[in-house]
Amino acid sequence: MNRKEIIREYKETPRPMGAYAIRNNATGKVLVGGSMNLPASFNGQHFQLRMGSHRSPALQADWDRYGGEAFAFEVLETVDTAKVPAEERRAAVAALEDKWLAALQPYGEKGYNARRKEKGPRNGETA
Q: Under a CB-based contact definition with an 8 Å cutoff, are residues 73 and 42 in contact?
């Protein structure tokens, strides 16, 4: 296999996608997220934490306090790309993230997620 074929094969290979958690083993707190590319998300989150620039100030503070060895990056559930059409995968990832947010309730003392605001009526619409 030549270099071009290897690159093409890599680009055509679906990345694992689904819901993930970053778990603080010292406190039990967790951050739940969803990603279309789990390996890239883990790398990005880990990089942000190491650089002191994570979007969650509470997670960053605990990372700084307990150190990286206190944290585990976990895949909670993946989308079966063989069964889910490409155009439905983003929605499938969002559904898995919602499922795990509901199951783990990673808010306040239990986690690092912020509660999502409920979507209400827009521009004078009634509910």
A: yes
For the chain, what is the radius of gyration of the CA atoms?
A: 18
CATH of domain 13-110: 3.40.1440.10
**∠80-34-119 over CA atoms, to 5°?**
115
Q: In the predicted model, is pLDDT for residue 1 greater than 60?
A: yes
Beta-strand ranges (E) seen in the chain are 18-24, 30-35, 71-78
Best CA proximity match to 112, nearest among 3, 32, 17: 32
The pLDDT of residue 126 is: 41
Q: Is the pLDDT of residue 89 over 80?
A: yes
Q: Are 20 and 76 in contact (CB under 8 A)?
A: yes
